[in-house]
Amino acid sequence: MLNAIKGALLGLAIGDALGVPVEFRDRSAIQKNPVTDMRGYGTYNVPAGTWSDDSSLTFCLAEALAKEFDINIVGENFINWLRHNYWTAHGVVFDVGITTRAAINRIAAGTSPELAGGLHEDENGNGSLMRILPLVFYIQDKSIKERYQLTKLISSITHAHIRSVMSCFYYLEFARLLLNKTDKFSIYKQLKTDVPEYLHSLSINSKEISRFDRLLKSDIYELSEEDIYSSGYVLHTLQASIWCLLTTDSYKDAVLKAVNLGEDTDTTGAVTGGLAGLLYGYENIPAAWLELLARRTDIEALAERVAANYTIKKSN
């Protein structure tokens, strides 16, 4: 379990850090000078190995899971990050989504965390998907009903629209099956049945479910790169991450493919990197990249705390 948690947290942070220097560059520009290794500076003028808000908020959630889980602690951690630079790479917040900032400010003003997230259709950025992965270690042994409810709860801290919730749900269901060492293509096939069956049982608007048809009714890995989008829209990020995972055979290739799609490179890299870290394991993340990663030892210590708490809960 420790290896899995390290793979997820470090895999996500590495993907994030690879994407930070080229964030917002379009695909054609990146193709002229593709990312092949860890770079520094670029978009935010930060050193190589610097991760962004994607990793920061992931670690804020993981810290809450290393204790007795409480959504209010998650909310407090998010406030502490935004206002006091908690769990930042170098002591400064430099990249915050509009919807995420607004939600955290609402929590700081007294709104309950589960009620703080944006509910409008135009608030479906990837801000909850990018940070949701640690939740898989808490929900993996629970029923699908509990898994969905907890996923919705944690997504809704910042992103409460059903599309964001369903994206997080699909992503964590994929991650959960990776934890069980299921083949990635078998997972993809299984989720074509499991996910829509459960979502329809909740009487979710069928038009919303149909937005996931690329994942649920076709074989996304057969699409060409030109058909994959990499904006900050939650569905684009989810689809791109699954496509990158299914069309590569190593951690390194998956995250580089994700980052070189352009646009929201840090988040596409992070979301892909988290799954790839679970699939290929901590030991298959390039050592040279890990050596450059900001606060690597702190991240590893966090993984140990999460694993220790998981072990305690299992023994009880």
Q: What global shape is seen? A: globular
Strand pairing plus helix content: what structural class? mainly alpha
The assigned CATH architecture is Orthogonal Bundle
Strands, count:
0
Measure the end-to-end span.
Answer: 17 Å
Major sheet summary line:
none
Task: Give the total of domains.
Answer: 1
Q: What's the helix-strand series?
A: HHHHHHHHHHHHHHHH
Protein name: ADP-ribosylglycohydrolase family protein
Organism: Ohtaekwangia kribbensis
Keywords: Hydrolase
Pfam family, one: ADP_ribosyl_GH
Describe, in plain words, how this protein is organized in 3D.
This protein has helices at residues 2-19, 27-32, 53-65, 71-84, 98-108, 135-139, 144-155, 162-179, 184-201, 206-210, 213-216, 234-246, 251-259, 265-280, 287-292, 296-315. It is built from 16 helices and no strands. The chain is an all-alpha fold. It is globular. It starts with a helix and ends with a helix. It has a single domain (2-315), classed as Orthogonal Bundle (ADP-ribosylglycohydrolase fold), CATH 1.10.4080.10.
